[in-house]
Amino acid sequence: MAPAMHWTDWFKASFGSSEAGRALIVDVLRRRYVREKQQVMRYRQHAERIHYPQFRDALLGIAAEEEEHAKAIGAKIIALGGTLPEVIPIHVPREQNSWFYLRTDLEEERHCAGELHDDLPALGGEFAEIADLLARIERDGRRHRAKLRDMIARSDPQSAGPP
């Protein structure tokens, strides 16, 4: 039986990277982790307040996917010897109606996509496995943005507020 591999040896074997490279990727992953967890909170809070049950279900579905993203990122952080960052709870303000919640969600998804786009080049070729994870998250984000745009198109900005 082969002796257990220490995480630093596993990291070097997997990514062929220096300690500085590991610190960079852990920092990127910690920021992504916080963003994903905060998006989960935002979607769940909006789902509680949104008028349309089909939109509520869609937002809860997106929240579940964002939670899976956070779990996958958290596992990578731990595997690289990092610690999970503290996630400060967010509280979203009450809006006039469902349309405003959906518009806010779309704006947040766009903002996260921009951050993710900025993070991917920092990974370079050394972190292919992690780059693949972040690319999958970006594909999911594009799908989420399309779903949100569809819901916005089907909701009325002049409608009554949440029940």
In short:
The chain is mainly alpha-helical. The protein contains five helices and no strands.
Give the topology, please:
Elements: H1 7-15, H2 19-49, H3 53-79, H4 98-123, H5 128-154
Helix pairs in contact: 2-3, 2-4, 3-5, 4-5
Description:
With 163 residues, the protein is an all-alpha fold. The protein has one domain (17-154): Ferritin, core subunit, four-helix bundle (Ferritin, Up-down Bundle), CATH 1.20.1260.10. Helix content is 74%, strand content 0%. The protein contains five helices and no strands. The protein has helices at 7-15, 19-49, 53-79, 98-123, 128-154. Helix 2 runs antiparallel to helix 4, helix 3 (53-79) packs antiparallel against helix 5 (128-154) and helix 4 (98-123) packs antiparallel against helix 5 (128-154). The longest helix is centred in the N-terminal third of the chain and has 31 residues, at 19-49. The radius of gyration is 18 Å and the shape is elongated. The chain starts with 6 loop residues before the first helix and ends in a 9-residue tail after the last helix. The model is unreliable at 5-16 (pLDDT under 50).
What brief labels describe this structure?
single chain, 163 residues, mainly alpha, Ferritin, 5 helices, 74% helix
Shape: elongated
**Which spans have pLDDT < 50 for at least 5 consecutive residues?**
5-16
> Whole-number radius of gyration?
18 Å
Largest sheet: none
Report the span from N to C terminus: 62 Å
The overall number of domains is 1
Number of helices: 5
- What do we call the CATH homologous superfamily? Ferritin, core subunit, four-helix bundle
Q: Which architecture does the CATH hierarchy give at level 2? A: Up-down Bundle
- Average pLDDT taken over every residue: 80
Task: Give the amount of beta strand, in percent.
Answer: under 5%
Proportion of helical residues? over 70%
Which structural class do the helices and strands define?
mainly alpha
How many β-strand stretches? 0
CATH topology: Ferritin
* Helix and strand pattern: HHHHH
In the CATH scheme, the class would be Mainly Alpha
